[in-house]
Amino acid sequence: MKRTSLDQFKKMPWKNGGGITHEYQVFPEGKSVDSDDFQWRISVAEVLGNGDFSLFPNRKRWLALWKGPEVEISDQVHKSEFILDKSPKHFSGDDRLSYRQILTKDHLLETSWDLGIIYHPQKVNCLMHRGELNRDEHFVCQTDHEYFFILGQNPEIIELSKNETFDLKNQSSVEFYQLCLTFI
């Protein structure tokens, strides 16, 4: 089991230069999202204002808001929209998407933070969901790799390999996002 706090993530500009990404992991190690041979990338992004998403051809994406104002996402080709909120959303990296923060009087000029994974669907199956783990519960990894993004004051990722166990220590419960990856 490996634990990594958000402040240890690699901070970099978005691929299109429109924002900031905090990259946790690219697999295989040493690959870049600018190359065509990466299988997945897990990251957290800061979203402020309006702009366009970076394109990731031949990839799929999961994205969920974990902090800050909701974000409206528009598909410029299919003429559709959805709201990025705490429920994970799945879409193609080929989609030409734009975003707009939904600011309210309670959230003026506040950054939205999302958790995302970009993955190669011919090499990896990927699922993302939100949940809560209570003190008396534990989790055993059943897939090749599982990642828990723990929400709260000090967000962190807990990485598990097959058959490893995660349980709470000194906390009554935590909210999390779970990313499950299985090689094809």
Describe the structure in your own words.
The protein is mainly beta and about 180 residues long. It has 2 domains: about 110 residues, Jelly Rolls (Sandwich), CATH 2.60.120.10; about 60 residues, no CATH class. The protein contains no helices and 17 strands. Strands 2-3-4-11-6-9 form a 6-stranded antiparallel beta sheet, with no helix packed on it. A 5-stranded antiparallel beta sheet has the order 1-15-14-17-12, with no helix packed on it. It has a 4-stranded antiparallel beta sheet with strand order 5-10-7-8, with no helix packed on it. A hairpin with a 5-residue loop joins strand 14 and strand 15. It is globular, with a radius of gyration of 16 Å. The relative contact order is 0.21.
- Stretches with pLDDT under 50, minimum 5 residues: none
Mean pLDDT: 89
Distance between the termini: 23 Å
In the sheet with the most strands, the strands line up as 2-3-4-11-6-9
Strand content: over 45%
Order of helices and strands: EEEEEEEEEEEEEEEEE
The CATH superfamily of the largest domain turns out to be Jelly Rolls
Number of DSSP-assigned strands: 17
Number of domains: 2
CATH fold description of the largest domain: Jelly Rolls
Shape: globular
Class from secondary-structure proportions: mainly beta
**CATH 2nd-level architecture of the largest domain:** Sandwich
| Helicity level | under 10%
> Over all CA atoms, what is the radius of gyration?
16 Å
Q: What's the level 1 CATH class of the largest domain? A: Mainly Beta
Number of helices: 0
Major β-sheet profile? 6 strands, antiparallel
